[in-house]
Sequence to fold (493 residues):
Amino acid sequence: MPRPLRVRFAPSPTGLLHIGSAHTALFNYLFARKEQGKFLLRIEDTDIKRSRQEWVDAIFDVLNWLGIDWDEEVVYQSQRIDRYQERAQELLDIGKAYRCYYLPEELEERKQAALKKGKSWRNDRRYAKISETERKTLEAEGRQPVVRLMIPAGKTVLQDRILGEIEVDNSTIDDFVIVRSNGSPLYHLAVVVDDIDMEISHVIRGLDHVTNTFKHVQLFHAFGYDLPEFGHLPNILGQDKKKLSKRHGAVSVSEYRDAGYLTDAVVNFLSLLGWQTGDDQEFFTREELRRRFSLDQVHKRDTVFDLQKFEWLNGQHIMALSEEELLPLVSPFLVQAGLMAEEAIVDQRAYILAVIGLLKERCRTLVEFAIRGKFFFVTEMDYNPKAVRKHWAKEPEAAIQRLRWLCDGFNALDSFHTEALEGVLRQLAEEHGLKAAQFIHPCRVALTGEMAGPSLFHLIAVLDKDVVIERLEQALQIFPEVIKSAVDEGQNP
Fold:
């Protein structure tokens, strides 16, 4: 009878949850949900010096934000020290482990001596079978032993769910330490004891754990337990094909959240890192991922973290949401940018919704709504010098005249809607034998400070008549000053 499917995610609370860890968590989660199994969470906090509660809280926060929920209570390794020591003693009692009294400097001497001969040194098990009298003598000298697992001769063959069959000669695995001289357990022992006690059926983790896995196999065998099924996920590389790091941009999930990436977009993008769907589909909803994900479609090749693709995909998820759905997501970034007070959001709801509607097809992140939409919320205009040089400074007198005509034409309108606004501008262009663009570009600079953006007539309608007239009049007043500043900057970049 097959074992119930139970997987785990086991982060160490020594920092923010990075992309690689989130990727591992997501694949375990999707696998469990697709197969109606259990997804468990374990906090590997035996490193007392580096582990902090704030990092534990941060892990919970990010997993909750990603929508990755876990089944059963969280397991903390720091609360299970006695259990690890108990199980280590069992291995000592049955002769599968031994106490080693080598001092660190003695081990280093033997390793260096072996290297000079072109050999690698393995523990010679000098202390594996000593008498009680010898043990007491060594401890009287102040030697505190570590506990080492005794690795048998032969080979270890592993059927990896992703990599296929992999094999190592046991001679390459030294008798590794499972308990330190101070009695604290090492990672390898704690992990295997936990996986046994938690009845983990599948261990899905990064490719960098393969070496550890062969050690863990030895521990499973020593305890006399059947192996879980192992699967090693591909490495995530930067676009330079080197291991993902800070130089490739933000690497923690919380940094992407703070930069305005949507939860569903992050989940979608991470799912594509190593998972081949068999078709060209790249946009997935959370429900589609739960339904379609298959561990058998995960490839073993390294996968590249493409930030441009990530941004594009985030933009696709933004466009898939309605203005109403985007409102609570965008508003905090407007507040953070100082464009709006939090208490004003309710009163300005209709206005913000209109702004979101104009911008959402242009924004790839939520923070871009505050950047691209800044002119909708400020009273003091900032004029992009490049826009001024291109659309004002080349023909200043002509630009001034066109802005005056537009100001008068817009001011005369009773109904300030897009059709009427466009009608005024195009009529002026026709009357004066000009192209519509010769009005549109100087007007856009006056109203937004930029040379590109949403449809001019739609943004004018959103800004409303009073604001539009005020900005056009302001532009006319400060026109020479702004042009001089922009030209000077262009000459002295």
In short: The mean pLDDT is 94.
